[in-house]
Each structure stands twice: as structure tokens, then as C-alpha cells.
Amino acid sequence: MGSPLDILIVGGGIGGLTAAIALRARGHAVTVIERDPSWSVYGVGIIQQGNVIRAMTELGVIDDYLAAGVGFDKVAVHAPDGTLVAQVPSKRLVERYPANLGISRPALHEILGRRAKSGGAEVRLGITPLALDDDGDGVDVSFSDGTAARFDIVVGADGLYSETRAKLFPDAPQPAFTGQAVWRYNLPRRAGLDALHVYNGRIGAGLVPMSDALMYMYVTTPEPGNPRYERDGLASVLRAKLAQHAPDIRTLAEGIVDDDGVVYRPLETLLVTGPWHKGRIVLLGDAVHATTPHLGQGAGMAIEDSLVLADEVSRHDDPEAAFTAYRERRFDRCRYIVDLSLAICRGQLGKGPPVDNALATAEMFQRTAEPI
Ligand SMILES: Cc1cc2nc3c(=O)[nH]c(=O)nc-3n(C[C@H](O)[C@H](O)[C@H](O)COP(=O)(O)OP(=O)(O)OC[C@H]3O[C@@H](n4cnc5c(N)ncnc54)[C@H](O)[C@@H]3O)c2cc1C
């Protein structure tokens, strides 16, 4: 059994916060640093599945988490003309809780942040590491606010454009634009919307319940050349993209009126196939495996990373042995999610064979039901 460590986590997002909760629960001292002084997240929602419900149970946040979102037990799949073609049941991995949850990102962030702090993690906002000096026995870190400290290990949970990854592995692959983007917008929850509804097609769409009052719509569009859109006029651009969509999506699109409410994101993908650690510094979440959202599993993989990392760090005395075991347990599963999500994306763009969304979703549910 490893002894309690003094741990720095770089990044206070979903991966960093779940790692903080899991590591504190095992008795380690944890400091989280977050570069954004306001520690804010954008206001649309996120889909999470049974493996995340199971993980949230293990992290001890399940009651607040379920109370803040909308649980559901199936995914409804529609043809491009709106016809319902399949209802994919999803298995409950914790019998008394729903199989899936839609939740707003700010609500999820608030729950994880509150739990990390009440569990004893120190959270420092508005700072970033300037230098990480690993001498083999510990890591000396100097921070952007002029302070410095020494830690036993450092966890880089700083997302897709991770500076920690760039420091450790300057030659690691860079995020690659897929040719597709996603648009998201909050709308009043449609009466009777009690599942994720997916609409297939070259322009894909989905409706996700996330509270009693709200759902969010996501729309995937081909965006050759990765154009930049001005914020002014964003709502009318999105409405125009939906002009030929299924009738119920077209009707809902009339409610997309606020430019500031539109969250636009070019879709990028990344998989680090080499090591995920160097010496006493290790990476997790989007910093090493960023997936397109076609299976709704990106955050799920980051959260599972956190549990496995905490487990391995607490099991081994030697950090490098712990980090190697952690990557060993995580790599195939993360690669599966990144690859299958990208295959769906490429199929939608006509850059690869079409992937049957209902089949892919059913297979993903089976695969992610396996223990981590
Ligand atoms: C359009 C879209 C839709 C998605 N939908 C879903 C979904 O429905 N379900 C799902 O499970 N996943 C979804 N995902 C994926 C999910 O959002 C990510 O996988 C998840 O947020 C990764 O968490 P993370 O903590 O690794 O990184 P991030 O969430 O990016 O957090 C990184 C944090 O580190 C901070 N940071 C960065 N650099 C530094 C630094 N140098 N110093 C200090 N702090 C720093 C950032 O400010 C941020 O707070 C989606 C992704 C996209 C793009």
C-alpha cells in the first residue's frame, strides 16, 4: 500500500475535480490549481451514462448529482426525416439509479467543486505552473503568482491543449480538427422528453433533457476549412443550418434567437499512444484522450481515469509503477471511445463508411458497463 502523498492537480475541470475527490478519499493531500480566476464553465448540458452513474456513486456525490439532472433509461434514434427508428435500452449499472443522466455543466461543476473542497482539497484559482522540476524524489513547482511548492506527484488534468503535456512530451500528437463542429443551445424542455433523442443525418441533432424546465439541443455540421463565426448573428446561422431538418427540429429551431446562448465548438480529437507519464508527472482526461462527443463519453473517460489513478497511486509505493498500471488499465477503453466516436463522425461527413448509430450506441453501453 502506498503512503499518503502531497499531490498537485493542474486543472479544475471534470477530470481534475474527480481526481481530487478520489485522491482525498484515499488520504492524500491535494492542491488543485485552475487558471481561470472565475472558474466558470459554459451553460449548456452534458450527457452521462451508466459508467458515470457508477463512478459518481463511488465518488460519493450521487445524491446531489441525480437531484441536479434528469435520469433516463433509453436512447431514442430518429431517421433524418424525424421518424423514430430505434429505442436503445440502456442497462442500469447501479440498480437503484437511472442508466443515464442529462445535467447542466454548471450544476455538475458546482457539485464536484463543492465536494472537492469539503473533502479537504485546496483549490487555488487564477494560477498556472510556470516550471515543473522533477528531481526524481519530488517535483518543485513555481507558480504564476510568484509562489513555489514541492509535491510528491503532479497530475496534469489541463484539457485538450494541456501545457503539462507540452512540457512532458513536446513531440506528442496535437489535437486534430475533424471537419465537423457542434452547436449547442438551451431550450424549454419539450413536454414528454424523457430520453436522449438522436436525429441522424449529415447534419445531426439531439435533444437532451437536463432539468425539469430545460433541455439542450446539439447540432453537428460539416465545417470544411474550420471557419470562424462572429458572435453577432450566430443564432440565425444555426437556424439556417436547420432549415432542411426533421419537422420537429425545424419547429424547435424557431426558438433559437439569442446569439449569446449559442455555444459553437469545432470538433477535435487526440489520442496519446505513447506514455501518459514522465517521472512523477502524469496526465489524465482530455490531455491524453480527447474524443468527439458522438458517444457522449469524453467526460466519462476522464472520470474513470480519476478513479483508476487514485486506486493505483494508493496501491503502489513507486509512482512510476502506479502510473504505468493506471495507463495499462485505461488505454484500450479510451482508445475504443476515441476511435468509434471518430468513425461515427467520419461516416457522417462521408469521409468513411457510415456507422449505424443505434448499433454503435448499444455496443458502447455494453463495453462501458465492463468494470474499470
Ligand atoms: C462539444 C462537446 C460536447 C461534449 N459532450 C460530452 C457529453 O455529452 N458527455 C461527456 O461525457 N463528455 C462530453 N464532452 C467531453 C468532455 O467535455 C471532456 O471530455 C471533459 O470536459 C474533459 O475533462 P478534463 O478535465 O480532462 O478537461 P477540461 O474539461 O478541458 O478541463 C481542463 C481544466 O484545466 C484548466 N486549465 C487548462 N490549462 C491550465 C493551466 N495551464 N493551468 C491551470 N489550469 C489549466 C482549464 O481552465 C479547465 O478548467 C464533450 C466535448 C465537446 C467538445
The quaternary state of the protein chains shown equals: single chain
CATH class of the largest domain: Alpha Beta
Bound ligand species: flavin-adenine dinucleotide
Rg calc: 20 Å
Strand content: 25-35%
Unreliable stretches? none
Name given to the CATH architecture of the largest domain: 3-Layer(bba) Sandwich
Strand arrangement across the biggest beta sheet:
6-5-14-15-16-13-17-20
Number of domains: 2
Q: How far from one another are the termini?
A: 20 Å
Q: Find the CATH topology of the largest domain.
A: FAD/NAD(P)-binding domain
Largest sheet: 8 strands, mixed
What's the CATH H-level superfamily name of the largest domain?
FAD/NAD(P)-binding domain
- Tally of individual helices: 10
**What is the number of strand segments?**
20
Strand and helix order: EHEEHHEEEEHEEEEEHEEEEHHEEEEHHH
Helix content: 25-40%
Shape: globular
Which structural class best describes the helix and strand composition? alpha+beta
Protein described:
The strands form 4 sheets. Strands 6-5-14-15-16-13-17-20 form an 8-stranded mixed beta sheet, with helices on one face. The two termini are 20 Å apart. The model has no long low-confidence stretch (mean pLDDT 96). The protein contains 10 helices and 20 strands. The longest helix is centred in the last third of the chain and has 31 residues. It folds into 2 domains: 244 residues, FAD/NAD(P)-binding domain, CATH 3.50.50; 90 residues, 2-Layer Sandwich (D-Amino Acid Oxidase, Chain A, domain 2), CATH 3.30.9. Helices cover 34% and strands 28% of the residues. The chain is of the alpha+beta class. Bound molecules: flavin-adenine dinucleotide. It comes from Glacieibacterium frigidum. One of its GO terms (molecular function) is monooxygenase activity. InterPro entries: FAD-bd, FAD-dep_Monooxygenase_BioMet, FAD/NAD-bd_sf. This is FAD-dependent oxidoreductase. Pfam families: FAD_binding_3.
